[in-house]
Amino acid sequence: MRLINRHPDRPSRLLLVILPFALVLFAYFMGSAERLTDNPNDKLLPSAVQMTDAVKRLAFVADSRTGEYLLWQDSASSLRRLAIGLGISALAGLCLGMAAGTLPLFGAPLSPLLTVLSMVPPLAILPILFIVFGLGELSKVMLIVIGITPALARDLEQRAREIPVELLIKAQTLGASTWTLMLRVVLPQLLPRLLISLRLMLGSAWLFLIAAEAIASTDGLGYRIFLVRRYLAMDVILPYVVWITLLAWLMDWGLKRLTQRAFPWYEGARA
């Protein structure tokens, strides 16, 4: 049997999923044990005990200065900013993509503009955002919005252009107005693609959030990572990175399940 036609069964698939993570962990802890044997004060590769102690201190011991549990406070702050940024981006991207992909009079100016905006490196304009919007919450949210909205809109525009023309003609033949056509025909086709696009943009959204928090913030996961880096506190940095990855994976999984439940007919939901 050709390799391309071989599919793992359920136990084998589970093993193949776990195997690379197990190998990475094994290599890390072997290296950590070797470095700590040579130098017990080494901070580059902390042991599992050191990282566990750091997590307990940050998650379950109130900070002596603020009285807050730092890990949960940072998580709540970052997730709030991310949720607001993703929500605004989703709404703006949906409206722009629908208009550019369905209405020729809007598509003519919007499509080139979205293409150009999607090429602008968002981190390059971060200083401009701080100058225009200040150092508060708005600038961090706007970096996420500016960073992912053009890409979302372009993806949805392309999806709108792929809607069969026959479907639009039939709806108009039955008396559908432009507004009805947008809401009853185009919108249902774009909503599942919007959720899939958000999944694809989650990594970028987290990147912009961490960058903004690292430069100007007093809380948040990115702020904490860049705060403790001056002390080479890898026992804090590594668990925070793992925690961010876990949160991102849970968000991706939640969007995937939502797509499958809300739009089971959509081909991308079954992928």
UniProtKB/TrEMBL annotation:
Keywords: Cell membrane, Membrane, Transmembrane, Transmembrane helix, Transport. It comes from the Bacteria. Residues 75-259 form the ABC transmembrane type-1 domain. It is a multi-pass membrane protein. The chain crosses the membrane at residues 12-31, 82-106, 113-135, 194-216, 236-255. GO terms for cellular component: plasma membrane. The keyword Hydrolase does not apply. It is found in: Cell membrane. PROSITE patterns: ABC_TM1. GO terms for biological process: cellular response to sulfur starvation; transmembrane transport. InterPro entries: MetI-like, MetI-like_sf. Belongs to the binding-protein-dependent transport system permease family. This is ABC transporter permease.
